[in-house]
Amino acid sequence: MFKALVMTKDADSGKASAAIEELNEDQLPDGEVTVAVDYSTVNYKDGLCLSAKGGGLVRNYPHVPGIDFAGTVEASSDDRYKSGDKVVLTGWRVGEAHWGGYAQKARVKADWLVPLPDGLDAREAMAVGTAGFTAMLAVMALEDHGLKPGQGPVLVTGAAGGVGSVATAILGHLGYEVAAVTGRPETSDYLKSLGATQIVPRNELNETVKRPLESENWAGCVDAVGGDMLARVLGQMKYGASVAAVGLAGGAALPATVIPFLLRGVNLLGINSVMQPFENRQRAWQRIATDLPMDKLEAMVQPATLSDLPKLGADILAGQVKGRVVVDVN
Ligand code: NDP
Questions:
Q1: Structurally, how many domains does the chain consist of?
Q2: Tens digit of pLDDT for each residue in 139-151?
Q3: What pTM does this model have?
Q4: How far is the CA of 158 from the centre of ligand 1 (A)?
Q5: Radius of gyration for the alpha carbons in the chain, expressed in angstroms and rounded
Q6: How far apart are CA 259 and CA 241, in angstroms?
Q7: Cα–Cα distances in Å, from 177 out to 139, 150, 208, 276?
Q8: CA separation for the pair 72, 78 (Å, rounded)
Q9: ipTM surpasses 0.95
Q10: For residue 229, which of 181, 286, 299 has the smallest C-alpha distance?
Q11: Which residue, of 94, 196, 277, 317, has the fewest CB within 10 Å?
Q12: Ligand 1 in contact with 41 (CB < 6 A)?
């Protein structure tokens, strides 16, 4: 028997709610690898999956949410993994379409796992989580498109959130000037401690675009917000610079013009963490082990247990979680 946070749907109201239950291993879904989960975390998507309507992501109940986890292989019918291996999982719609990491055990496809790189343990991997992994993918995409330190400030939007905090710490560690956009001025010291060299108040950037081109301010951007802010930022990028579009915390619309693309050669790079090929996942986790300072990561961590999750899910949807939550499922 093992413990899990199970969402069940009320037949009358159609609303789902969460409770901690004891499950039997036979209840786990099919998959080649059974993992004893050590830690999971809370991402924006987890907030959606924990909500009463499942955020449009969860279709079948009962459901175990948790879009990522790190732990130890207990049993494997796939040659790539054996009992005792340390692994991490992000993406592949685990925690949405497939049972996820808010449990002491998970059973998944071998293809979805990545061996934990040397220098990173399960707790640190979940302090990074999907949010931090995606931040690394965004930094890698900007570098692949020519970003180097010394070109000017790199903007990070939604900076005090999970993606933003990790992006700020990685960029700071790599020697970039980091301009951190936040709607929470009280997080300024925290953001500076992570590596931000400049704090940009959210209200300076979230107004609708009035002029398609403004001053060329930013050498790159990791954008977790989307909406009006992304539209505004496009018009403030330096010539030939790139924006990595990661999230939609501020909205899914993009009320922009094509002028920054045509007159300044600005690039808009889409970042998707869910379906990344194995080689890229491995590369990103290895880069995380080397380029994300662990003391900075520790400063972002808010510890939690399974029983804290319903409240944390609501908090992250309200933009009220600072940094990264690490859930000890045991
Ligand atoms: P968080 O909630 O931790 O961070 C989002 C941050 O955005 C908040 O902390 C807040 O930062 C800012 N924010 C919130 N609401 C608004 C608003 N209305 N206008 C402007 N800024 C706002 O979430 P995550 O960091 O986990 O995820 C960020 C986004 O990235 C989400 O949309 C998520 O779905 C997406 N994502 C995408 C992935 C992909 O594969 N593409 C993978 C992982 C996440 P502050 O308080 O500093 O202003």
A1: 2
A2: 999 999 999 999 9
A3: 0.95
A4: 5
A5: 20
A6: 14
A7: 13, 8, 26, 28
A8: 15
A9: yes
A10: 181
A11: 277
A12: no
